Amino acid sequence: MTRMSLAKINGIEINFDVKGTGPHVVMVMGTGSQGRVWQAHQVPALVKAGYQVVTFDNRGIAPSSECADGMTLDDLVADTAALIEHLGGMRARVVGTSMGSRVTQELALARPDLVSHAVMMATYGRSSTMQKAWSRAERDLYDADITLPASYRAAMTAMNNFSPATLRNEQAIGDWLAILEFSAGQRSAGRRAQIGLEMRAGSERLTAYRKITAKSMVIGFADDRLIPVHLSREVAQAIPGARYEEVADTGHFGYLERPEMINELLVDFLR
To answer: CB-hemisphere CA count at 13 Å for 175?
Structure first.
């Protein structure tokens, strides 16, 4: 089964896609990215494993409502909860990366009735000084009305998000640079609002995560510059009984960089 919809959910419009049949796996993407990114590798593997996989565009990412006046992490959590309820309200397996992981862990804490399994890739429970500085720099760049050349943005994205192993692979990184330059996202008020969310959400949450009851797995990407693995380990240590996996030779885009390994971990854990 494949179903694409734009529905009024939690007071806004959410664009979502459903593929496959079986128990629901809801996938939550990170800052500035569309839900369709999951469809390159993770969706086919999970559908093959017997799941009904739901991907969606978070508020801020068109065609979902951009909510340019701002948003909070709680808004994104409520959106995801409302989407699960819209799909029938059964407990779902929820998978997130980066900002999507923070949504996942907060959803598991706030709505245990909706989350049976929680997977958090490249996550954290407290903001580091460097994370705050990077988010501030991204915000200032946008507010200065500066549009970087696509070639520069592609090179910077690759340097920040891929592992040294991939950067050394001339064929692989050449292909990735071409993809990143071609697909460079346009400046938008919705993406700016998501960056603002990153700036405001710096409070320590590790203590609260001790109350998460969903079966949980945290995946750290060994060469992640944006969210170093020690921050992800802290989340795994905070959640009772959480499984921690660390994938070598992966940067922040580990689910794209080493999809076979990530898919194997997901299918094994969600089963």
So the answer is: 6
